[in-house]
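Exercise 7. Predict the joint structure of the components listed below.
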Amino acid sequence: MKAAARPVQRPADARLLVVDGAGRIAHHPRSALADLLVAGDLVVANDAATLPASLSGRHLATGATIEVRLAGSRSLAVDDGASFLAIVFGAGDWRTRTEDRALPPPLTAGDALSLGPLTATVVRVVAAPRLVELRFAGAADAIRAGVARHGRPVQYAHIDAPLALWDVWTSIAAQPVAFEAPSAGFVIDWHLLEGLRQRGIGFATLTHAAGLSSTGDAALDARLPFDEPYRLPAATVAAVRRALDRGDRIVAIGTTVARALEHAAARPGGLRPGRAIADNRLGRSTRLRVVDALVSGTHEPGSSHHELLRAFVDATTLARIDAAVASGDYRTHEFGDSVLVERGVAPRCAHAEPRSNLNTATLASRLGKVRTTLPA
Amino acid sequence: MMHSPHSRTPLRVAVTGGTSGLGLALVEAFAARGDHVAFVARDAERVARVAREIRGSHGVVGDVARKDDVHAIALQIGGALAGLDVLVHNASSLGPVPLALLADTACEDFELALATNVLGPFRLTKALLGLLAASARESAADGAGAVIVNVTSDAAVTPYPTWGAYGASKAALAHMSRIWHEELAAHGIAVLALDPGDMDTPLHAAAVPDADPATLKRPRDAAREIVDRIDRERMAAALSPSEPAIALAPGSVT
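Solution:
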C-alpha cells in the first residue's frame, strides 16, 4: 500500500475493494458505490465536522515550544467545551513523523499552557509523558473562537501540504466535535445522496467525536480508540429500527458509525436516541447487532481500524483482503481508497444464531440481495 | 413562552451582518421569542456589545467575504448552537461608496460586492449545509424543514443606474437561491431570496445619504415579516417522514 499524499476527498480514480458476505472480492471504482447498494438498504454516516485540534504554543513554566493535539472529550454538550483529553508534543509539527516527534517538557497537574489566544491548565497527567487532561480558561464561545482561529487540522507526515479545514470537513459536516476527520465519509457528496434517494436507499446520520488515529507512542496507540462521545438522532434510531425489523441491510460509513451503532444496540434497553459515550471496541469476538456492511479506508494490519474488520470477516478472509489491497496497489490513509466489507455469512451461522429480530425469511431475502448486488 | 398555549422548540438561527440594520433587527426578533441565535459581523467590539445586550445570543467575529474565515465562522455557529435550522445571509456590500456608474466602478469594488454578496453566502451555505440537512432530517417528524434566506433587493431586478456592482451581485444571489432551492428541496431545505424593501439602515444611508428616514421601512418591521415567512417556509419545506423504501412490497428488492 502507498500513502495518499494529496488532500483530495474524492479523486476521480478512487477505488473500492468490495467483499461480499461469502468472502468474494471484487474491485470497483469508488464512484460506483451507490450501484452496489439496493433499495431498502440504510446508509448511516458520521456527520461530525472536524475541529482544528492542533494548537501550537508554549509551556509557560519552561518556556518550551509545544504542540497540543486535542484528542477526546467527555461529552457533546455545548456547555461542556472546556475540558479535553490531549496529546502534547515538543517543538515541531506534522512534517515530522509522529513517532519521531520530540517529547514535551515534563508536565504536571496545574501547569499553564499558552496556546495562541487561549490559555489552558493541565488538570492531570493521564499517561506520562504526553497524554493529559487539560482545561481551557474562559467562556465557551471564547474557547470555540480561539480554537477556530488558532487551531490547525491534525495531520500527519504522509500529506504533502498543510491542511485547511475545508480539506477535512466532509460534505455533510455538521456539529464540530471530531478531532480527526471521519474520513470514510469523504466518499459522500450531494450527488451520491441524490443517487441513494433515487434508488430508494435510506440515509441517516449520527454525530460521533472521532478521536486521534495516532499518538506517536506505541503504548498509547494500543489504547486507541479512546472513549468517544456520540449522539444518535431520533430519526436515525427510527430508521435503524425499521431496517432491523425488515431485515434490510445497514451500511455504516466509517468505523466510528459502526462503533456507535453497536455500542448503542448493546446497551440495556437497546437503541435509543440521545447522547452516550462509546467505550466499546469492535473485534473478533464482537457479535454485530446492527451493522451489516462497513465502508472504510484501507488500513494497515495492526491498527485498531484493521482489527475492527475482524468483527465482519474471519481471519482467512481478512488475510485475503490484505493481500488484495497490497497487490492491487490500493492507496491508504485518510485520502486513500476504500473498502466495502459485508459481514461474513458463514462464520455467523457457524457459531451464532441470527439476531433475534431476523426471521429466516428475511435472512434469506438478505442473502438473495447480496448475491444480486455484488458481482463475484 | 410561559404564556404560550403551544410550547415551541426554540429554533437555532444564524444571521450574518448581525450588528446593525436588518441583521440586528433579526437577531433581536428571534432572540425575543426564545430562539437560539448566533450572529456574525466583522467588528469585534460591536459583536461583543450585541452579544452582551441580547441575552443568549452568540457573537462570531468574521468576514463572510474572506474564504479563510468561512469555516471558522461555521465551526463557531455549529458549536454554539449544536445544530442549525435557519440561516440568514444578510451581510451585504454596496460595492463602491458613494455609488458609482459601472464605467467608474473599480474592479476591486465590484469584486468585494461579489465576494460579500455571492461567494460569501455560497461558501457559508456549503459549510453549514450538513447542519441544515441534519436539522431537516431530524425535524421531519415535527413537520418542519430547514430554511436559508438570502437577503436581496429590488436592485437585483431593476437596472438602477449607479447600483451596478450591488445590483448585479444581488441578481446572482437571487438566481443562485432559486437553483439551490430546486436542488435542496429533496433534502428538506428551502432557499429563499427575500427583498425586505428600502429600510432605514446604515447600508441605505451610505447608498442614498439624503433619503428621509421617515419614508423608509423600519428594520424591525421588515425583520418581523421575514421571521413570519421563515416559520411558514419551514412547514412547507418539511420532508415526508415516510422513508423511501416504504412503497416497496417486502421481498420485492431481492
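Discussion. The CA atoms of residues 285 and 311 of chain A lie 7 Å apart.
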